[in-house]
Amino acid sequence: MAEKAKSKTFEDTLKALEKVVSELESGELPLEAQLKAFEKGVGYSRECLERLNAVEQKISLLVENPDGSLSKNPMEGSV
């Protein structure tokens, strides 16, 4: 199941999370279904956060040096 989730794009996972949130906000689910939906939502949320963190680590800003060359600098605020 984890492999299937990882094969989804970030956008697919975010849409799945939005769907779960919408279902929970509707108030129409019985308690057990709400709990299962909440657990799925937490999983989707964690997966999105992990992907965002991985992308943030890869992002760097291209900065032009005084001599015209380009160098990569880590984003401000990144770990």
Structure description:
- The protein has 79 residues and is α+β, with helices and mostly antiparallel strands.
- 65% of the residues lie in helices and 13% in strands.
- α2 (10-26) packs antiparallel against α3.
- The model is unreliable at 1-5 (pLDDT under 50).
Give the strand tally: 2
How confident overall, as mean pLDDT?
83
Estimate the strand proportion.
Answer: 5-15%
Structural class, judged by helices and strands? alpha+beta
**Overall radius of gyration:** 19 Å
> Which H/E pattern describes the elements?
HHHEE
Residue runs with pLDDT of under 50 for 5 or more positions? 1-5
The major pleated sheet works out as:
2 strands, antiparallel
How does the overall form come out from the CA principal axes? rod-shaped
- In spatial order, strands of the major sheet run 1-2
Work out the helicity level. Answer: 55-70%
CA-CA gap between termini: 30 Å
The helix tally amounts to: 3
Summarize the structure.
This protein is of the alpha+beta class. The protein contains three helices and two strands, in the order H-H-H-E-E.
What is this structure's SSE topology?
Blueprint: H1 2-7, H2 10-26, H3 31-58, E1 60-64, E2 70-74
Antiparallel strand pairs: 1-2
Features:
single chain, 79 residues, 13% strand, disordered N terminus
